[in-house]
């Protein structure tokens, strides 16, 4: 195995294992910042040793053991600096808050799901701002870099870095316990937890950066966390609504990538490749959510949109009028320029591209969408369908320059090339016509 192959393998292992590693260490250390620090130390050790020694048979266990040893060394140094070792020993024996010598035994993964759930609620503690909760959890549990999180938030990378540092410091200063909150306190944190899981899933479903169009491991992590939450809050409609949304969306993952690894957008997907088991589970979760609460909440509403696609045997059978109406309802529940952009796509499919473009054009001045590549991508698609090819090319090129995902960039540049050479003008378009491209609208394909 070459050095570059080893590095890619280490990156893959880290993506899979980092959340489990940090969660286990946080239970041991009761300090999220230290937990991440020792997890990173283990990653550095892997980068130093694995290229020469080879990747161990159980890389996750290797990382945990290495991090655990360094954490124990840290605790021993702290003990040696204590004024009175005998007093410290009595405190250890009485369980007075310090870490017992055999505490490391609990780091071997026996309670790893509970650890991850605990870490999720710690990161979403109300002592943190809403933005800090999401950023910290995406970092600790989603394994995202600060750059990836910044793209998801549409804010500068330095802003995210500061939020994460402040969040870890705040949790340590406040002495937030590493525990799942009691039922009475759980509801106030549930909304933040759901929001974080949703963002983790979205990053897996449509990666903001890197060489890959999707990151299925993140989708699996988000689904696992959602199902765990359902066990804690079985009567919460939005928990089931989010699970329904993720199950139905995840059913398309295999169809979203061609055999050559290229993106396949919604209208071009082979629906025979959609996972019918996940669709059935998603529709059942949607029924559960709708039975628990009316009117529907935002996650249940989005799941209902996804269900419209899941129930259509072909793209032509999609009920775009209903989808547009559901997006209208979602816009009333959670007003957002991103929701409006998706509504523009739905309107274009239901009533024609001119209708969709009229709404999309109103979003051009939105500050929140200034660096959002899907706005010019959608406008490019709508302009193309109207036969305004020169304008469409400009929009696709702008979108390609904004995206951080290599596969998506290639797709958008292909779209630009399909519009013809720069300066070629409008070609072969009937006035007021609707030129159908072979591509689906280039939004997140929940629309």
TrEMBL record:
Residues 189-289 form the DUF6596 domain. One of its GO terms (molecular function) is DNA binding. Residues 419-447 are annotated as: Disordered. One of its GO terms (biological process) is DNA-templated transcription initiation. Residues 21-80 form the RNA polymerase sigma-70 region domain. It holds the Pfam family DUF6596. The keyword Transcription applies. It comes from the Bacteria. Residues 121-171 form the RNA polymerase sigma factor 70 region 4 type domain. Keywords: Sigma factor, Transcription, Transcription regulation. The keyword rRNA processing does not apply. InterPro entries: DUF6596 (IPR046531), RNA_pol_sigma-70_dom (IPR014284), RNA_pol_sigma70_r2 (IPR007627), RNA_pol_sigma70_r4_t2 (IPR013249), RNA_pol_sigma_r2 (IPR013325), RNA_pol_sigma_r3/r4-like (IPR013324), WH-like_DNA-bd_sf (IPR036388). Transmembrane segments: none annotated. Belongs to the sigma-70 factor family. ECF subfamily. NCBIfam families: sigma70-ECF. This is RNA polymerase, sigma subunit, ECF family.
């Amino acid at each position: 195995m070459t050095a570059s192959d080893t590095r890619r393998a280490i990156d893959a292992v880290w993506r899979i294992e980092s959340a489990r590693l940090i969660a286990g260490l946080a239970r041991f250390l009761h300090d999220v910042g230290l937990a991440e620090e020792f997890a990173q130390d283990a990653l550095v050790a892997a980068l130093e040793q694995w290229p020469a020694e080879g990747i161990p048979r159980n890389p996750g266990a290797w990382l945990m053991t290495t991090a655990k040893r360094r954490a124990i060394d840290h605790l021993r140094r702290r003990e040696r600096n204590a004024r009175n070792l005998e007093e410290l020993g009595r405190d250890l024996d009485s369980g007075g808050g310090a870490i017992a010598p055999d505490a490391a035994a609990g780091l071997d993964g026996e309670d790893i799901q509970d650890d991850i759930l605990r870490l999720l609620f710690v990161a979403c503690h109300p002592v943190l701002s809403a933005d800090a909760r999401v950023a910290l959890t995406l970092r600790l549990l989603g394994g995202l870099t600060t750059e990836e999180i910044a793209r998801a938030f549409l804010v500068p990378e330095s802003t995210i870095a500061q939020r994460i540092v402040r969040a870890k410091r705040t949790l340590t200063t406040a002495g937030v316990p590493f525990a799942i909150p009691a039922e009475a306190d759980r509801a106030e944190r549930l909304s933040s937890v759901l929001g974080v899981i949703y963002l983790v899933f979205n990053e897996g479903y449509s990666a903001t950066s890197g060489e890959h169009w999707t990151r299925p491991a993140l989708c699996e992590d988000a689904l696992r966390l959602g199902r765990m939450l359902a066990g804690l809050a079985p009567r919460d409609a939005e928990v089931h609504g989010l699970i329904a949304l993720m199950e139905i969306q995840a059913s398309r993952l295999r169809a979203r990538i061609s055999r050559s690894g290229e993106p396949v957008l919604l209208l071009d997907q082979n629906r025979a490749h959609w996972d019918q088991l996940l669709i059935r589970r998603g529709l059942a979760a949607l029924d559960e959510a709708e039975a628990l609460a009316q009117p529907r909440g935002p996650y249940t509403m989005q799941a209902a949109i996804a269900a419209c696609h899941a129930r259509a045997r072909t793209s032509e059978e999609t009920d775009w009028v209903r989808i547009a109406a559901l997006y209208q309802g979602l816009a009333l529940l959670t007003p957002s320029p991103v929701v409006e952009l998706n509504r523009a796509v739905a309107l274009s499919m239901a009533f024609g591209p001119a209708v969709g473009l009229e709404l999309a054009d109103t979003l051009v001045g939105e500050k929140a969408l200034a660096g959002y590549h899907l706005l010019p991508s959608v406008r490019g698609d709508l302009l193309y369908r109207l036969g305004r090819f020169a304008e469409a090319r400009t929009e696709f090129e702008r979108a390609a320059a904004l995206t951080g995902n290599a596969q998506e960039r290639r797709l958008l540049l292909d779209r630009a090339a399909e519009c013809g050479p720069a300066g070629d003008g409008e070609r072969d378009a009937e006035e007021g016509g609707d030129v159908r491209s072979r591509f689906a609208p280039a939004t997140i394909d929940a629309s």
